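Summary for the steering committee. The consortium agreed at its last meeting that each partner would contribute one worked example illustrating the joint modelling workflow. Our contribution is presented below. We chose a case with several input lines so that the handling of multiple components could be demonstrated. No manual editing was applied between input and output; the record is shown as generated.
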Amino acid sequence: MSRWIQNPALRIALLYFAVALPWVFFTDLLIRSLSVSAATQDLLNSLKGGGFVVVTTALLYVGVSRVVASADAARERAERNEAQFRALVSSMDDVVFVTDREMRFTELLGPAATPEDRDRMLGRTALELFGPDVGRAYMQVGERVLAGETIYLDWFADAAPMSFPVRSDVTSMRIAVAPLHDASGEITGVVGVGRDTSRLNDLEREREQAESHISFLVNYDQLTGLPNRALVEARLGEAVAVARRERHGAAVYLLNVDNFKDINDSLGYEVGDEVLRAVADRLRALAGPEDALARLGGDEFAFVRRLPEGAHDPRLFAGDILRAFRLPMRAAGQQIYLTASIGIALFPDHGDSPELLLRSADTALNAAKAGPDSQYEIFHRSMAQASGERLALANELRLALERGELSVAYQPIVSAKDGRIVAFEALARWHSPTRGTVSPTVFIPLAERAGLVDNLGRFVRLEAYRWLRECHAAGFTDVLIEVNVSPYHFRRGSISRLISETQEAGLDPRYVVLEITEGALVETLESAEGLLDDLRAHGFGLAVDDFGTGYSSLTYLARLPVTVVKIAQEFVRGSGSHGNRAIIETALELARRLGYQTVAEGVESEAEADYLREAGVDCYQGYLYGRPLPPAEALRCLTDSRGA
Ligand code: C2E
Ligand code: MG
Ligand code: MG
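What follows is the complete predicted structure of the assembly.
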């Protein structure tokens, strides 16, 4: 009821009714009660009517003008409010729309909404505007909102085009669609407010990126971008689980670049890094879609492969890996020749957990490294024991070097012409108090792998140079010393140490012949050309040791900048056979033409010596002429032979 009284039009009408009705009624009664003539009564009635009209007109004027004034004020207020509202919305980056109960747009505001957009959209429904798919979805949302719900919609630019006008840099938006109530609380339509969430999403994305970067740091190797040990262990765990479930096998290939330390030492870490990246690229090219490849650290890489029932021999893939190393790696403008060793462990035979499989593969890798030629090995139980022994031996060798258990023996090399001793080969000897005499064929490779060969080689050479100076001092000034040099020194690309050692010992390099095995020489020739020439330029003699066992072709002999060729014992031993004779004779003939000295190794019998002399060999070395001797005995042997 009170709301009715609020209505100004009704108030005026009621007031008019309340005033006019009694006025008409009582003035009529009053005039009739006056005892005046009928004509006077008519006149009085006319006057009364005129007065009524004047009074009501005045009242009407006052009333209506007040209503109109307040309506004007209200409209002005409304217009001001609306302008303010629009300004506010426009400054807020939000998109606001309003619809009526029929879902017709009645308002559209937003920083990107142009008057044309408003003209296009206002008065029309989402269905009419946005097409059947999006439109219907909006209509359904509208229905739920009209029933009282508030609904939030998320929009992303990369998923769908935007139906409302938004700025081009807005990539995502959250739209809240809520019921629009009138003053009475009645739902009269729908109001939607779309808020730009691009920035929020950017932040979210940045956070996600940061998180994934952290996960990259944790799980991937920075240098090569390959998964690291942590990730590959997890992958290996998955592979094992799948293999167990699906009853197939899996293989772990653990790969180590041979002598990688030398590259770092000689060419620097940056080149080393570059080489590792090149290796990673080569390996990546080999990995199938189901294989996991990782860098476990240093120069060690791992492949985890599934081995389906009846799969090819796991060795074949090892061959593929080794083949990938055949071509030189490019790093720092150089071509670097590398080899690798591989250890293979198979699930379930060699372990049923990632740790065990990796450990078995590691044991197999060690066996591959220790072996003379095979560059890969499949795990075998006996290896675990062998690798334990090797480790113990390596430790003992380290101690032996410190304790002076190593010594040098000298074996004479005599001229085939007159039996004169022209040189001695220095050979390392290890007399272990616990193990007795250990053969250099055992401890030299061990020292190479344990990183002890530097110290060991230096010890042998310095001893030998000192001893040779003794010989020279004793008057045998034409005698040379031959020392074995591990291929490590050549792969390292640094010869300065070899030179400084002779300076240290005060010996002219002309008296020194460096023996390098054929295989190592060929490799050196390819990876470090010029290095051998440098050594030659410093006066060193160079000998191809064990010629014939390196499987290189004879044409290599012509390319090697050597001075001495040492025919391997194997050929001398078998010099009765026609094939071996052909090889010996060809090598000797070639060496003669190239101007190289020739030494036959391991000559044990007169028959061998006779044959070799006839074939044209220059020198002999072998038990027939003298075993490797301790320094004092070797000097005595020299004195005796010269004195005779
Ligand atoms: P190598 O350089 O070919 O040395 C010759 C080997 O043949 C020596 O074995 C020597 O004792 C042996 N030998 C000599 N004449 C005869 C013979 O008539 N009959 C038989 N059966 N053997 C003979 P050793 O001393 O056991 O050395 C084995 C290998 O170990 C050497 O082969 C060499 O490659 C390596 N080696 C020895 N000392 C050193 C060293 O100081 N540094 C390096 N890097 N390697 C070394
Ligand atoms: Mg030798
Ligand atoms: Mg030899």
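DSSP finds 23 helices and 21 strands in the chain. The first helix runs from residue 2 to 6.
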